[in-house]
Amino acid sequence: MGIRKPHAALQQLGLTRREAEVLHWVTEGKTNPEVGAILHVRPCTVGKLLERIFQKLGVHTRTAAAVRATRMCAAAVLAISLAIMAAEMVAVSLIVYWVGGVSDGAI
Questions:
Q1: Most buried of 4, 10, 28, 34, CB within 10 angstroms?
Q2: Which pTM was predicted?
Q3: What is the pLDDT of residue 5?
Q4: Measuring CA to CA, which residue among 30, 66, 22 is closest to residue 46?
């Protein structure tokens, strides 16, 4: 995905690490019991975490939270991709400049 952990970008929304983990699994279509099993917590704990997530994101449903999370991750991936492309363009420009200088006998 371009970032070290799937939930890293979600923490930029003001979520705790655990809330971001829960939201990540919700975006993957997992139910509360499934998320609980993955994170080794009770489903009711997942429910409470989702209530806090909804409040922080200003949404009322898990679908709305998942859409918000997906958009946030997509924006983070796009930003990283653009930064990489810009760095590659600078590197190519420097190589072209250096090669041009060598061929002209300037270096």
A1: 10
A2: 0.64
A3: 59
A4: 22
**pLDDT single digits (tens) 4-22:** 455 667 777 789 999 999 9
Take residue 22 and report the two structure tokens written for it.
Answer: 């829960």
- Residue tagged 């983990």 (tokens): 21
Give me Rg for the CA atoms of the chain: 21
Across 6-106, the runs of DSSP E, i.e. the strands, are none
DSSP state letter for 14: T
Residue/partner pairs of 14-20 with CB below 8 Å, 24 or more apart: 14/56, 15/53, 15/56, 18/49, 19/49, 19/52, 19/53, 19/56
In CATH, the number for domain 9-82 is 1.10.10.10
Residue ranges of the chain whose pLDDT lies below 70: 1-8, 73-82, 101-107
